[in-house]
Structure formats: structure tokens, C-alpha cells
Amino acid sequence: MERKAKKHCSQLGLQPQFRSPGGTWRGLTALAAIIAWLVASTASAVLPKLGDMNGDNQVTVLDLTRLQIHLNGTAPLSPELQLLGDINQDGLINDLDVTAIADIILGIRPLRELPPPGILATSPMNGEGNVSLTRGTIFRFTQPLATTNAVSTNALYAEFGGRRILSRSEFSSDRRALTLFYLEPLPASARIRVTIDGDAFAGMLGTKVDVKGNGIPGGTGFVEFDTASISAISGTAIIGTVYASELVPDPNNLTNSVNVPLAGVTITVDGAEETLRTVTDANGFFQLKPCPAGRFFVHVDGRTVTNVPSGIRYPDMAYYPFIGKAWEAVAGYTNNLAGGSGLIYLPLIQQGTLRTVSMISNTVVTFPAGVVASNPALAGVSLTIPAGALFSDNGQRGGRVGIAPVSPDRLPEPLPPGLTFPLVITVQTDGPGNFGEPVPICFPNLPDRNSGVALSPGAKTALWSFNHGSGRWEVQGAMTISSDGLFACVDPGVGIRQPGWHGVNPNTPVCDPPPPPPPHPCEGSYDCCRRGCGGGIRIDLCIAECITD
Where does the pLDDT of residue 211 fall: very low under 50, low under 70, confident under 90, or very high at 90 and above? Predict the structure, then answer.
């Protein structure tokens, strides 16, 4: 029988909004038996089947019901059973998997064995160019890896010109990501090769990691990327003006508002911080001359601002943040505009915004009372930091986190065409730049800036984040409008991956899903949102194509 597929993007799946009629699962005895079956199946030649969550070697309505019970929160699946519930192996359990199980029951989709854990995506991706010299390398896996995995210097490393680059590795707290932090700047204008040994890592059931994307556990995989140039080009400059995001009344005409220039803001080129740098003048203007040509990365440090009233001082009072950006300059021109417009806005982070996160329990971060008082629509907006999830590049855990609202037309640089956020939320810390797992957040459900209409309860949208490493806005995953219509909250498994700038685009569309992946992807190509033989999954490109279409 034919059945029209529901429209959606991979990682933008819709979750069912109903409860299954069978109540909760049948208790710990059944769960223990299933876990034992999973382990025994993995040890034998017969692997468990995707979608078969009761061990009867088939997928039936009972398995579909079990997945629905998990999704509506009545009885969450154990981590072991979540491996089988993630039918498309995209790292999330959502409506895509409900549809996939239904397809298996109807005979539309084949019944497949649980594949070995593989590489879902890498950042930078294989073949990427103009990579920042301070950007770490991240491997995201289709399944969480075992807690017994230890990362040796031969299991994951980067090299250039026959020399290994000084680095350290760390797993995310959910074991779904492994980051290579560099202890020295990457060489400029260089082809970097990162090697990962699949035989050194195993999933929760002991299967080695398929790093080549060919369905075979183990092996050696590689990611290669080219770093940006930081060579200063004579006669080349980039210019701009730094203002506060907040307008103030015009002293000469109180009916108007004017910009506040920020003096003393420090701007440096990543990888050449001591030699390629400049400071804004009394009018907030700067000229970085000479500067690299092409695309390069900078940091704008608002913490060094000098022309401020009392009450603004980093880190114990209100302050302007430290942000990373990607700029472009044409060689031989001295009027290149920073960020394309030359206008850079920095929001004031109010005193009391940052809150110390707990190492033993979740920390809920909200806007300061003064911010909510001036904008009641922000009441109830929250960010939930899992225990111990915040950490620095050197591995130190803990710190302080806060959130601040920013007008979408007063950002450090303009939004790209097609993105029309009603509100941007910046997540700030007192230094740490990493979250060990996706951090859940709820945005206010504000009307779309074009239509003036807010989304209805149960409607879907998407969380967008600015990736300071790549210098681009990227989709993080699906959000659902709350039953009271007040908030857009991330779906399970989706969240903010790093501090910075985040928004919700109410008109993010949903698209037809890709066809079921073949057992072995064709060599040298990418099957939308699936593995390609030879490296990485281009989820970012799949979603970007979906959004722009």
C-alpha cells in the first residue's frame, strides 16, 4: 500500500503529541532481560534489529507503542534500548523514527540489524577550507560510546608536515562527541590531517567504531581541512565602527534615539593576536591595517571598553562581551567593511546575569529580574545546564553562565538573508567555551517579523546557533511550541552546543525526508543526511539545502 511521507528535515523531526493506551512498560525485570539479550546478541553472530525493542527478532506494533511511550515521557527507554529506537541513526529519537518503524511494519522499509557506531559528522568537515587557527576538531557519533574508552595519543591526533600538533582530547558528557583541543595555534595556510583509530573506540555494546562509513567496525579514518591565511597584505585594511546594541535618547532631540560608540574595544586576528590588532577610537571607529586578504577570523573584545559610565566593568559589574567573527577583505583595498556592513553592535551584559553552574545538579538560568521587568514577554525563558556540562578548553569544569536578549537588527553583524529572528539570545560565560552535551533552552514564542503571527501550540520550528568556529549560522535541531503557546522549547536531544548567539526562525520549513539509506553508501557521494564512504556526514548541507529551498 502506498503512503505519503510526512514532510520534515532530518534532525527537525516531529514528535507525537499523544499517549499510548498501554500505560507504562512492564517493569525492571523485562528491561533487565532485554539488556541481557542485547549484550548476548552483540556477542553472537546475530545482531539485534533496529526497532526490535522486546527481543522477538521482529518489529511490530508493540515496538511502535514502546517508542511512543518513550517520546511522550511516560517511560523513557534505557540507553541500551535507545540504540534500537534510533532507526535512522541520526543521534536523536523523534518522529522520523516513528515513521521508520511504521514503514518497517508495513514492509516499506527493510528490517536492518543494528549497525556499528559510526561518525555522524565532523567539525571541520572533510575538505573544509579557511578554518580558524584556534578551532578544535569535533567528531560526533551515531551512538554514544562506552565509558571504558580512553583516548590515547595514537587513537586521535592531528598532524602537519610530518609533525603532530600538540593537543588534548575530551569526550562530551553524553559520550556522543569527542573533541580534539589544540594546545597551540594551527599553522596558517596549511592542510591539516586528523587521524582517528576506530579500533581504539567502542560503542555501548562493545562494537568498534566504523570510521570509514562502510558498515565495517574499526579501521582508520581521516579528516583533512585547510586553515585560513593570516599573512598581512600590504595596502589592505578592514574598517568598521563598534556601537552598543542599546540605543539612548538623543540629548538634542528626546524623541530620537542615537548610537553609543564604544571606545577602547580591542580587535585581534586569530593566530596573530600580538601582531595584527587594533583598538577603537573615541567614535568607536577602527581600521585594521594591514590585514589578511580573503576570509579570516577575528575576536572583538568589548571587555576592554574605556568610555563607559560607572557600573560597567568586567568581570564584577555589567560588561560588553568578547565575541568571535569571520571577516573578509579584498587585497589592495583599504575600505573593506567588517562583516559586510562595517557596523558592529555589542550588547551590554547586565550585572547579575551570570550564575554559577552546579557540578552535581542541573542549573536553570533565566534573565535577570530587571530584564524581565522591562520586557515581560521574557518571563519563563530558561536555559538548563546539565550538571558539570560547562568546561574550558583545558578541561577545567565549572564556571558561570548567563543569558541576555538582543535585538536581531543590533547584532555584531547582520543576519544572513532568509533568517528573520524575532529575538536573539546570547549565552555568555565567564570564560569556559564548551558544553559537554546539548543544553536545553526555551525561547518566547514571538510573532514572526514578516507575518506578525506566532506559531500555534504543537507547531514545529528550529533552533539556530552561530558557530564561532565556522563563522556561520547553523541549525541545531527541532523545537516544539508549548501547549500554552508561550514558548518554543527544544525537542529531546536537541540544544545549544556552545555559548554565543542563538535564535528561532518561526518560518523554518520542513522538507521531505531522504530515502532509506542503502546498507553500504555509494563511494565518494553523500546520501542526504547519511554517511558517505570516505568521511563524515553532511547534515549541515542537507539542512541548509532544505531551508533555502
Answer: very high
Rounded mean pLDDT, 221-249: 95
Confirm if 90 and 118 have CB atoms less than 8 A apart: no
Pair 194, 208: CB distance under 8 Å = no
Is residue 136, in this structure, part of any structural domain at all? no
Q: With respect to residue 399, please indicate whether it lies within any of the assigned structural domains.
A: yes
User: How many Cβ atoms sit within 10 Å of the Cβ of residue 330?
Assistant: 12
> Which CATH number does the domain housing residue 49 bear?
1.10.1330.10
Q: Name the grid cell of 60.
A: 511490530
Pairing relationship of beta strands 355-356 and 400-406 according to DSSP bridges: antiparallel
**Beta pairing class for 460-467 and 191-197:** unpaired
Q: Please give the single-letter amino acid code of residue 37.
A: W
Which of 45-49, 84-88, 530-534 has maximum average pLDDT? 84-88
What residue numbers bound the domain in which 382 lies?
355-504
The answer to whether residue 190 sits within a structural domain is: no
Q: 346 and 323 in contact (C-beta within 8 Å)? A: yes
Give the three cell numbers for residue 140: 560526533
The total number of residues written for the chain in this structure: 549
User: What mean pLDDT is predicted for residues 496-504?
Assistant: 93
Residue 246's Cβ-count burial label (10 Å; 0-12, 13-18, 19+) is middle
The SS3 of residue 155 is coil
Let me know whether 329 and 360 are in one domain: no
Q: How would DSSP label each residue in 507-519?
A: T----PPPPPPPS
Q: What is the largest CA-CA distance in the chain?
A: 81
Q: CA nearest 433: which of 467, 474, 387, 472?
A: 467
- Helices and strands (H and E) in the chain: how many: 6, 30
The rounded mean pLDDT for the chain is 84
Cβ pair 290, 318 in contact under 8 A: no
Q: Say how far apart CA 295 and CA 304 lie, in whole Å.
A: 25
> Lowest mean pLDDT: which of 229-238, 487-496, 504-513, 524-533?
524-533
Among the candidates 73, 98, 114, a domain finishes at 114
| Confidence band, pLDDT 50/70/90 cuts, at residue 523 | very low
pLDDT for 249: 87
Q: For the chain, how many structural domains are there in total?
A: 3
Whole-number Å distance between alpha carbons of 201 and 218: 8
332 CB-contact burial (10 Å; exposed 0-12 / middle 13-18 / buried 19+): exposed
